[in-house]
Every structure is written in structure tokens, then in C-alpha cells.
Amino acid sequence: MKNDNVKLRIRFDKHGKIRFTSHRDVARIWERTLRRASLPVAYSEGFSPRPKLSFGLALSTGHESDAEYLDIELDPDRTDLAMDLESLATELSGHLPVGMHVTDMAFVDRRTPSLQESVTSCIWQIDVIDVDADTVACAVARALAAEDLVVTRERKGKQVTDDLRPLVLSLDVIGPIEADDTGTVAGVRLLAELGTQPRAVRVAELLAALDPPLTERRVVRLHQWITNDDTAERSDPLSAAASPAPAGAM
Amino acid sequence: MNSLWPQLEPLLPHVQKPARYIGCEDGMQTPTHGPGIVSWLLTYPDTYEIGLPNQGLQILYEIINERPDGAAERSYAPWTDMEAVIRRERIPLFSVDTHRAGGDFDIIAFNLSAELTYTNLVNCIDLAGVPIHSSHRADSDPLIGVGGHCTYNPEPIADFVDFVVLGDGEEAVGDITELVREWKVAGKNSGTREGLLRELSKLPGVYVPSMYEVEYDGAFLAGVTPRYADVPATIEKRTVADLGEWPYPKNQLVPMTEVVHDRLSVEVFRGCTRGCRFCQAGMITRPVRERPAEQVSRMISEGLQRTGYDEVALTSLSTADFSGIEGVVKHAVSDKGTDQISVALPSLRVDAFTVGIAAEIQRARRTGLTFAPEAGSWRMRQVINKLIREEDLYGAVESAFSQGWRRMKLYFLTGLPTETDEDTLGIAELARNCVKLGKTHKSSASVTVSVGGFVPKPFTPFQWFGQNTESELQRKIGLLRDDTRRSKGVQLKWHDPKATLAEGITSRGDRRLGPVIEYVWRNGGTFQEWSEHFSYELWLEGMAANDCDVDWYVHRHRTEDEVLPWDHLSAGLHKDFLWQDWRDALDELGLEDCRWTPCYDCGACTGYGIEHRVASATPPAGGSQGTGVDLSTGGSVPVVLQPRPKIDAGAVGS
Ligand code: SF4
């Protein structure tokens, strides 16, 4: 069967209590949200048809985000390409739980590579606690100066070793932070750009690999970037995929 | 705001499934608390995943919050890892709505749907910082209330609770709120708790165990009698006469994390008069009260739109008995089509009509179908009054396989009264025959047989029956294992007979079991419903340590004149009706469904001046289970009808 579905790419955030939901939970939240908004989502064929949604890199349970992405395939016959995406974003945000909002969306070419394949790095704001700023600065300097940052992890029951160093694209100490009433507690703030290809480095892995290991408190994904191999230019998944006009999707 | 959230939040990254503790459900309320407002913490004493979908709790949550003088929040038993964390950090049991401490509520009310949650009940009371024994509570402590099916014999937990609600809670919570508000406004002064409890005990459907004296005659119970003249001698259950007046929940809670029944639920009727003799739910919820079909349809379409769910379950006992079933099902799937909306009927009758309904709603997803014949032989099914003939079952199974289903699940009980090995082995025979039927359609056809040990329950005709021992149940399961070992396509699953024994201890016990439950709890025996936490040894030790004889409590047949621990409570059913039904069972006599035949005067309607509310005067098509109507295979129903003998009231001693 020919696939001429229309693809809608959405960026959303996730803050507050809802951050304790898992990646799978978020997928179910979206399925319900889209049905409530009566969006003409395309369904898979077969025994138990599923709505065609595809999510980007999983966010660890407990982490917050300003930059989560989701691709939705819509039935072309029932989709109005001229629809007002701004009011749709408002409507979807109204159906999402407290703490989640749609921050941007656009039609993209249906041949756009998936988020999983195309995102190359993420920017993380990492607050670490129970440690002073000097210790953090030393740990960071040591990691950046090191030739490798080897971690072992279990994969399908086997121990595998990985070098994280090439995937630590940047790591900066922003400085000490004070507690405030938005949920921030006193600690030291880091900013990191971590690569996602061939696999995404998790924040917890990085902190555990530092010397001394650091304890995370509040972690926020600020951006996801797609770097163009040839031009080395960075763009976010919405602008990278933005088709010249919705017509490109038809 | 006395929210514990700031303390909880840093701990959540360290526990499994933290979304259990955040609330945030769609439909969650943020009630206001205040001096003139009675606050209820509605608690389900098992995990969030199991407790959240509980409809009873959700109904009361809305009803209380709609009252200007009521505020309700919810809580669930924290999993063992979370319990360890909050005990270490000295954080009490909390609500998931606004994360308030359990001890800040006026009432902590538990839904008790399974006896094995009793140790969790005690644990939650303790976690809330409330003394576990009602007699040790101070005036300012929250009142501990319980409701739900288990409370038809609340005696084993009588020491731990302040009040019990029998039957439907919709109206009772209002009455309780009013009394508690007066007491709260007056300042909950020292020495006034006893007076409040006494007032509560006079409300219809409310039982206050501490207002009653228990007397024994040796090992036997001599009676449970009121300590004061104004406290009623018998407590009658509450019954909502017209379900149409209670279209709840109006805003079913949609959890943000996965729960056991992650779908919309619409209760289509309450009560059941099929008269299955092992089934406590059927007996205690009589009479049948249907929700008007248009209301059901409206609740389905509005509910699906509001929640975004793609599945709706129509809940009741034996759902195909709903007189508007076909219309409701057609309407439910007509809006969006069966590829996008599925309808679940968790409780199904065994017949071809039912398969027809299932075909209507599972056009797309014909994976599995579940039937509950309950017993393996016709003789046995007459004893338990589950009048499904072999032809009905095979007709249903044939029609299901021919319409594309490939898997069938069959539920059975073993350890039933008068059961012989032949009856037990009949289960395997039935299953093999079903597989044979399936193979003519699909070579991969399979049947899963699920066998549970029978636990006699209060207010059923089997309440006098001595439960099979653990070893006897093991032996019967062994018989079935041996017999099905070489039966291709038959998969046998069974419930642990040790857990069946523990359930037997608590289901018909008296107040002497309080210390046993406390023993199991003190020794770490929480989450007894979970096989990885269930401890058979703790229950046996607890019984021995408190001089309670397992054999006497569980395996002994009771006699007609014995005072039963729940005799001072009433589900409306006359004891002589139940006794006669017990005798009929032993004589293998079936009893028709009273919805469509003359009344047997069991007491459920007659005693309360209410009646069945069904939309149709004729039985639903295809129901041969004692309805006297048979559309599935033709022929008359071999039910032996017994003219009800006049019972000599003196002779039954009630
Ligand atoms: S009182 Fe009569 S009609 Fe009502 S449930 Fe009992 S037997 Fe049936």
C-alpha cells in the first residue's frame, strides 16, 4: 500500500510532577491527547492497529525537558494542510497534563528521516548536589583532559565497554546555584552537549564516569540538535526538516 | 497547604515507578479543606496500578467532593521500596492529590475487595501515624472506615476499624459526612469520639464494631450483641434503588501511568440473580438494578471523548444479561468503528449469543475470549447452580473458533461441595473437547484452563461448607496436571492453594483473628495478594501463636444452628433461604433466575421494598442459564424446578 501520509512534527516540554512518568507513559498520554483533539491520525495495518506516532530519544524518568519531539502521521484525505497550527498547539496543550505543552509544530516532508536517526546531540542542564564548585570544576577538567572515559555496562546480559569521551562534545561548569521556589535546590550547575550517535550518552552515565562521580538533582534537556555533516551547521529538528511549503508533503 | 511534596520529590528518583505517587490524573480534584469541611482520604490498600481503576472509590471521590461540606483525596499502598524510604525519612502515608499527610484527614476510608489485603490495611493505618487498634485512638485521630465486598464479614478486622459501611456507599457517605461535620465543628473535644461512634452506629448500613459485645460458648460464637439499647441489633446493608440517579463517575480518572484496567469503565447494572451458589458478589448485590440504556450510551460516548481512551469496558456481573446490551454495543462502536474503539465485556455468559456480541465488538482484534464454566461436569454445575450445559459451551466455543478467535480461556473452580475426582477431571475433558473443536478451524487453536481453589464466602449458600484442605487442592490440581500433560493445545494454570487457605482463614473468621492478622503484619507480611510477597508460613505461625485452629476455622462444615460471625449483619438475604439453597445444592437442584420467574423471597427486594429494575420483561436472547429461554441450540433447559417449600421459621432458629 502506498504511503502518502502527512507528517506533523511537534516539539513539547515536560516539567514538574509529570516528569516522573516514563517514556512509555508519555506515548500513551499522546495517544489519548490526539484522540481527544480528534486529529486524523493514521493507523498501522494488522491485528491490533496502532496510531502511527514516533518519538525521538527517550527522556529518562525524572528528567525535565524543554525540547521533546514527536512525529505524527496523519491521514492525507482527512487533513487540512492549511489548518491553523497555532490554535492546534493551544488545543493540544489544553489536553496534555499539567506540566506538558506544545511549544512548536510544523508539517514536514514525509520522507524526513526519523528523529532517532537524525538527532546528533542534546544539550543538558545538570544540577549536581552534595558537592562544592571546586570539586566539580576539577572533575570536569579531568574528564575533558582525559583521552578516554571508559564505562562498562550490561547489554543483553553481556558486559560491554564504551568510551564516552568522543560523545562529550562540551561540558562547562556554570557555577553554584541557590535554592529557589521553582524547585531548584542549592548545588552546582553544569551545561553539557552530549552526542547521540551511534548511541545517546545518558546523563547518569556521564556523572558516574567522572572522578569523583557526581550526584544529579535536577536535569533538564534544553535542546536537541541535528548537525549537518558537510557544513557542520546545527539546527533543531523542526527547522532542519521544515519543508519549503506544506506542498512538499503532498 | 500542608503538602509533603517538597519532602517526597527528591526521594522519587530512588523508587520504582515514581509516577504511582504523583497524582496528576486527568479528572483529579483539588479539594478545599477547612474547619466546616469533612475530609476523607479514600484509600485502596494495594498498589496504585490496582487501586486507581477501582470504580467504587472513584464514585465516592466525586460524590464527596461535590458536597460543600466534604473533601476527598486518594491514597494507595506504597510499594515496599517506597515504604522503606518514607519510613526512613519519617514521612507518613500521603494523598496523591495534594500530598497531604494521612493523619490530617478526618476520615481514612478503605475499599476492601480482597481479604488478603487486610495486612495492608493495618500497614496503611500505621503508616498514617494512627494507632492500629481503634480502642487506642485519641479523639483527634482520623476515623478509620471500610467498605467493599469483604466487609460483609468485617469481624476479623473489627479491632482495627472504627466503622464499616455495608452495601452501596453513595448515600451512606453523605450521612456519615453530616454527623462527622457536627462533631468537627464542635471541636472534636476530648471524650466525644465514643459518642460520635454511637451516633454513627445508628445510621442505616453503618456498623460500628466497638458498639457490640462478642460472647463465646467454648470455641463457638454465642452472639454479637449491641452494648446499648439504641444501637441496632442487626445492621442492614444500603442499596441504591435506581442506578440512573447516580451516573458516576462523571469524570473517570485517567492515570498518567499504566494501571491494570487502563480504559473507560461504565457500570451497566448492579446485582445479579443468576444465583450461582459460590458467588458472593451475586448474592450480596441483589436485586438487579440496570442503568437506563440511553444513559449508558451517553456515558460511553462522552467518556471516550473526554478521556481519549480507545477502549470501554461495560462492567457488571454477567454483562450480556443487560437488557439493552445489543443497542449499547452497536452504539459504542458506531461512532468511530471497531478498528479504533474496542469494547470489553469482562464478565461474560457462556453461550452463542454472547459470542455474537463479542463478534460485534472485536471485529478487529480477535485474539482471545474468556468463559467461566466454573465446573467440569453438569452434575457439579447443578450443585453450584451455574447451569451451563455442555452444548452451550461447545456451541459458544464452536461459534467463536469459526469466527476467527484462536485462543480461549476457561475459568474453573475446584474444591466445590460434593466434588468427586470425576468432576475434577471433567475440566480436562471439557478443555480437550474445546481444543478439538478449534482444531477443525485452525491448527494452532489453544485453550488455557485456569483453576482456582474454592473459598466459601459469607452470605452464600456455601457459607456452611468446609473448605478443601491445601493438600486436597494440591492433589486435585495434580490430577489435572497429569491428565492434561499430553493434551496438545491445553494449557493449565492454577492459583496457589496456600493462598487459597489464607483467604479461607480470613473470609469466615471472627474477631479472634484480629491478632493473627496483626501477627502477619508485624512480621512483614504485607502485599499478601502478590505471590512474591505471600507468606504461607506467617499465616500458619500467626494462627498457632494465637491458639486459632486452622481446621476449625477453614475446613469444618458448619451446622444449621451455629451462630455465624456475620449473623448480626444483613445483606437482605434470609438465612433460611440460604440454608434451603444449600440443601438444594446438595440435592443437585438448580434454581432459575428470579428476574424472569416468580420470586423466591430471598429477602433482597422484599425486605427493603425495592425491586429489580430491568428494561425488558423478557430474558435476553440465548441465555439458557436458568432463564428458561434457549436460543443457542434448541431444546428445553434441564433445570429441575423446585416448588419452594414453606420453611418452618422455628426450625431454622433465626
Ligand atoms: S427477593 Fe425475590 S425477586 Fe428479589 S432477588 Fe430475592 S428471589 Fe429475586
List the helices and strands and how they pair.
The complex is a heterodimer of chains A (250) and B (654).
Chain A: E1 6-14, H1 23-36, E2 53-55, E3 64-74, H2 85-95, E4 100-108, H3 115-118, E5 121-129, H4 133-145, E6 150-155, E7 158-163, E8 168-177, E9 187-195, H5 203-209, E10 215-227, E11 234-235, H6 237-241
Parallel strand pairs in A: 3-10
Antiparallel strand pairs in A: 1-3, 1-4, 2-3, 5-9, 5-10, 6-7, 8-9, 10-11
Chain B: H1 5-8, E1 38-44, H2 48-51, H3 55-66, E2 70-76, H4 80-88, E3 107-111, H5 118-127, E4 143-147, E5 163-165, H6 172-185, H7 193-201, E6 206-207, E7 212-217, E8 220-226, E9 235-236, E10 264-267, E11 269-270, H8 280-284, E12 289-290, H9 293-307, E13 311-315, H10 325-334, E14 342-344, H11 352-361, E15 368-374, H12 378-383, H13 390-402, E16 407-414, H14 421-439, E17 446-453, H15 470-484, E18 490-494, H16 497-507, H17 514-522, H18 536-545, H19 550-555, E19 569-570, H20 575-586, H21 649-652
Parallel strand pairs in B: 1-2, 1-3, 3-4, 4-5, 9-19, 10-13, 13-14, 15-16, 16-17, 17-18
Antiparallel strand pairs in B: 5-6, 7-8, 11-12
The complex binds iron/sulfur cluster.
Protein model, in words:
With 250 residues, chain A is α+β, with helices and mostly antiparallel strands. Chain A folds into two domains: 6-116 and 236-241, Pseudouridine synthase I, catalytic domain, N-terminal subdomain (Alpha-Beta Plaits); 118-227, 2-Layer Sandwich (Alpha-Beta Plaits). In chain A, 22% of the residues lie in helices and 35% in strands. Chain A has six helices and eleven strands. Chain A has helices at 23-36, 85-95, 115-118, 133-145, 203-209, 237-241, and strands spanning 6-14, 53-55, 64-74, 100-108, 121-129, 150-155, 158-163, 168-177, 187-195, 215-227, 234-235. In chain A, the strands form two sheets. In chain A, strands 1, 2, 3, 4, 5, 8, 9, 10 and 11 form a nine-stranded mixed sheet that branches. A two-stranded antiparallel ribbon of chain A has the order 6-7. Chain A is globular. The model of chain A is unreliable at 244-250 (pLDDT under 50). Chain B is of the alpha/beta class. Chain B has a domain at 5-217: Rossmann fold (3-Layer(aba) Sandwich), CATH 3.40.50.2300. Chain B is built from 21 helices and 19 strands. Chain B has helices spanning 5-8, 48-51, 55-66, 80-88, 118-127, 172-185, 193-201, 280-284, 293-307, 325-334, 352-361, 378-383, 390-402, 421-439, 470-484, 497-507, 514-522, 536-545, 550-555, 575-586, 649-652; strands spanning 38-44, 70-76, 107-111, 143-147, 163-165, 206-207, 212-217, 220-226, 235-236, 264-267, 269-270, 289-290, 311-315, 342-344, 368-374, 407-414, 446-453, 490-494, 569-570. Chain B has a six-stranded mixed sheet, with helices on both faces. A four-stranded parallel sheet of chain B has the order 15-16-17-18. In chain B, strands 10-13-14 form a three-stranded parallel sheet, covered by helices on one side. In chain B, helix 9 (293-307) runs parallel beside helix 10 (325-334). The longest helix of chain B has 19 residues, at 421-439. Chain B is globular. The A-B interface holds A 17-18, 20-22, 24-25, 28-29, 31-36, 43, 47-49, 61-62, 95, 97-99, 183, 185, 217 and B 5, 9-10, 12-13, 18-19, 21-24, 26, 254, 256-258, 262, 304-310, 339-340, 364-365, 367. Bound molecules: iron/sulfur cluster.
